[in-house]
């Protein structure tokens, strides 16, 4: 194929841009562990509240971090208020007993789908203490916009 | 109107009316977002109108417009009568009945599940059956397109198929592969479940099948627009196509790369292993490549046009272009916004980075630049060319047609910039209101949502201009002998059919790549111990 010089340069440059994008994703994924929540674990959506993993919702704090067990349902999160320590890894485990929801902590990159039948799990560290808004970001019915919760990141005890 | 013109004309009119209805729904959302105290403003109406807007724009307007344009390409570029017109009409009526069923279900409040219809949200069976019929109708269109290509090929042994048909065949192949996913979702999961034949459904499996379809769907919208950019725009600009073989290369790359990428829409999903998401991310980023090539080739074609009109100097050719010509303005502006949308798309697809924008207002800001402008504005520009020609009438209200693309551009800038910004600030998409009990984070969004609403109103004005021109032309345009649609000549003569015209071969390559990307994750998924969900209809 006879490609004019300028376009050939452009095509090599475009290939270079794509390769650089791919490299950035790769470096992010391997170097900084910048990975999307991709936990694979199933749970019976009809038994969420009796399943041992979700029977008690809330926060368990340990010296090394914290675990949050939460449920997203039409149209609220349980618990409605979550308190976690700053500067320590916090693991969230969330599921849904009804339709698909989203779990997004506004102002952070904590964001996951909450799908019935599956357990969403991710670990993150909150550097800044303060009050954060948690919203459902996947349409779940007429009360979708009323589905939110509060995250309070507290200064960790020294 | 000649008998032959009725087929594409009927398709274009279904598309135009679907567009008009969907635009009215969008105005309602824009006003709702501005929190105006309107009598009909309610969460129920809002989510219903989001569903209707999505289904009518993304599935009905685009599909019918593309089908109609396909027949125009057979008649105009292959220069033959549409063979199998009976099948084509059967496709039209099947898709129309299907669209009617789905719209009935939506407007009667029985299918407020948005255009992505993620289970276990459960709609009335008519919604799923109707949308399936739209797809079946489009398959009949595919059959007619392929049959006409084969008939042409028999009569022109060894010739390269005209570029416009090359692009439409790529569209057909992408569509046939893509719709396998949604057909499987509809036939094996959603329809039996909505009819009560099965009790539960696996939402992640449904999402995998939906996005198997949902991302190549965007190339089904985009490729016919590229056909316009490559084969009609240079002619309207008064120039030549800069490179015919590179255009063919672009269409072939889309055949190969369009489908094995769906997991980038599920980056935030549980139940999908990260390694497969990463593979789909890499493949997705390569799809940028053919669009980069397109940007050069089409822009170079416009420069050729300007220079053929006597432009000298570095950028003088830009001033020589026909900015007052509706098709030219529509396409040139849609290309500009698509460049921005393309980079946004690279961000969305970038694996972990997706967490910052997933399901935020950024996403609607993004796809209103791509499908909402690159495709929709190009189609509107094309309609200014096709509707008068098919109807045998002059374009009526020409001034509105001249202004309309610029209004769309302005409205889209306001709408899109504000939604990208609020998205980065964490505002979720598709919410009736974003108050969240007066949370501080939510209050920070309010100024920008007002800007978005103003953008929406400008866009509606533009859409109304378009509809007025279309209706005016069809009903009151002066009857005349219209010139046939003209196609751009390439700068260098097209050779014989070569490697890039071997559609069978590229289809096989595409299917192999799809198998690599999907066979193992789908197989592992269905073999895993899973629990089904019953349906819910909270609307």
Characterize the structure shown.
The complex is a heterodimer of chains A (158) and B (539). Chain A is α+β, with helices and mostly antiparallel strands and 158 residues long. In chain A, strands 1, 2, 3, 5 and 8 form a five-stranded mixed β-sheet that branches. A five-stranded mixed β-sheet of chain A has the order 4-10-9-6-7, with no helix packed on it. Chain A starts with a helix and ends with a strand. In chain A, strand 1 (58-62) and strand 2 form a beta hairpin. Chain A has one helix at 5-31; strands at 58-62, 65-73, 76-78, 81-85, 89-95, 101-105, 111-114, 120-125, 130-135, 148-154. In chain A, 17% of the residues lie in helices and 36% in strands. With 539 residues, chain B is mainly α. In chain B, 70% of the residues lie in helices and 0% in strands. Chain B starts with a helix and ends in a 12-residue tail after the last helix. The relative contact order of chain B is 0.12. The model of chain B has no long low-confidence stretch (mean pLDDT 95). The chains are: A alpha+beta (158), B mainly alpha (539). Chains A and B meet through helix 1, strand 7 and strand 9 of A and helix 2, helix 6, helix 8, helix 9 and helix 10 of B.
Helix-strand blueprint:
The complex is a heterodimer of chains A (158) and B (539).
Chain A: H1 5-31, E1 58-62, E2 65-73, E3 76-78, E4 81-85, E5 89-95, E6 101-105, E7 111-114, E8 120-125, E9 130-135, E10 148-154
Parallel strand pairs in A: 2-5, 4-10
Antiparallel strand pairs in A: 1-2, 2-3, 5-8, 6-7, 6-9, 9-10
Chain B: H1 3-33, H2 43-76, H3 85-107, H4 125-155, H5 163-194, H6 203-231, H7 233-237, H8 244-257, H9 274-286, H10 288-308, H11 316-319, H12 326-349, H13 361-391, H14 398-424, H15 440-443, H16 446-476, H17 503-527
Helix pairs in contact in B: 1-2, 1-3, 1-13, 1-16, 2-3, 2-4, 2-13, 3-4, 4-5, 5-6, 5-8, 6-13, 8-10, 8-17, 12-13, 12-14, 13-14, 13-16, 14-16
